[in-house]
Amino acid sequence: MPYRRLPNTDNARIKALHTLIEKAAETDFQQLPLSPALLTEAQEVLTRLERLSARYQQTYTLQVKANKQFLVKMKNVRMYLSHFVQVLYLSVIRAEIKEEQLAYYGLGSEKLVVPDMTTHEQILSWGEKIIEGENERISRGGVPIYNPSIAKVKVMYSLFREAYQNQLLHKKATNRILGEITDYRETADQLICRIWDEVETNHMELPAEKRLELNRRYGIVYYYRKGEMVE
Questions:
Q1: Which of 107, 162, 187, 198 is the most buried (most CB within 10 A)?
Q2: Angle between helices 208-217 and 150-202 (to 10 degrees)
Q3: Cα–Cα distance measured from residue 168 to residue 178, given in angstroms and rounded to the nearest whole number
Q4: What's the pLDDT tens digit per position in 142-201?
Q5: CB 22 within 8 A of CB 218
């Protein structure tokens, strides 16, 4: 015998409810295999599930689009920060800048090695230190570093920081809607289960082949186990 399995995706849930409602619309009221109350509830759940699903897809698409732009800004700021530090180290090696002044940048213990800027947090932290360090050294009479200048580095850092904050907001919005739709899935699944139970009960007296075919028309999905004969 085939067994039924509830939808496991939002699209499948929406399809199951659509199939039921469309079939019910073309069925004589007296022949409906489910109560009007359940049909009304199905229409309400379908409407909300579609809205939640559409909102999630919209916010997720915006997040993905923003992330592509964010990755470009992250690549740029990491490159500028790394190049600036390398030029700074070369200036120290050439004795143009005193080695002890590396402490202004938080680089005193880095032993002329470019610090790790793999994560977003590391970029934010080192970017702030390097910008403040260069400003501090210049304020004490030091000659500014060029190619890249700290002004250019600061622009790239500001663009990255803004994009990072925007990405956090996009992610928060997406997760909030995902939480709503995740919670609502249980409501939809419980309703679909009740509908399928009622449809199957009302068709119980029909011959097996006709019963299964009619149940399928109301959105019930059946599966056969491996090696099982299809009726």
A1: 107
A2: 140
A3: 15
A4: 999 999 999 999 999 999 999 999 999 999 999 999 999 999 999 999 999 999 999 999
A5: no
Tokens 């097996």 belong to residue: 208
What is the distance between the alpha carbons of residues 98 and 165, in angstroms, rounded to a whole number? 36
Tokens of 175: 């997760």
Residue 6 dihedral angles phi and psi, to the nearest 5°: -65, 150
Judged on CB neighbours under 10 Å (0-12, 13-18, 19+), 51 is exposed
Contacts of 120 (CB under 8 A, 6+ apart): 74, 164
- The residue written with tokens 């213990």 in the block is 109
Backbone angles phi, psi at 131, to 5 degrees: -65, -45
CB 150 within 8 A of CB 127: no
Question: Shortest CA distance to 156 belongs to which of 65, 69, 66, 78?
Answer: 78
Per DSSP, what are the bridge partners of residue 3?
Answer: 223
Distance between CA 56 and CA 174 in Å, rounded?
6
